């Protein structure tokens, strides 16, 4: 897992990174759903990533 440094990132960026790693957070669910959609050839998001 990648680490985010306070020397190179704002507090907002660090919070966003932590939220994406927390399975109880909606940002985590959104990121997982987006990844699944991009891997699914029956989803429009899949076609948008393979242009």
Overall helicity: 55-70%
Q: Classify the beta-strand content into a percent band.
A: under 5%
**Main sheet, how many strands, which sense, barrel?**
none
Rg computed from alpha carbons, rounded to a whole number of angstroms? 14 Å
Low-pLDDT runs of 5+ residues are none
Structural class: mainly alpha
Q: How many β-strand runs?
A: 0
- In whole angstroms, the N-to-C terminal distance is 29 Å
Averaged pLDDT: 79
Label the overall shape.
elongated
Order of helices and strands: HHH
Number of helices: 3
Taken together, the total number of domains comes to 1
Biased composition (Polar residues): 1-21
Region (Disordered): 1-51
Biased composition (Low complexity): 22-51
């Amino acid at each position: 897992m990648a680490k985010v440094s306070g020397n190179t990132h704002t507090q907002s960026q660090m919070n966003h990174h932590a939220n994406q790693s927390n399975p109880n957070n909606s940002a985590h669910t959104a990121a997982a759903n987006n990844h699944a959609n991009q891997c699914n050839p029956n989803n429009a998001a899949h076609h948008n990533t393979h242009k």
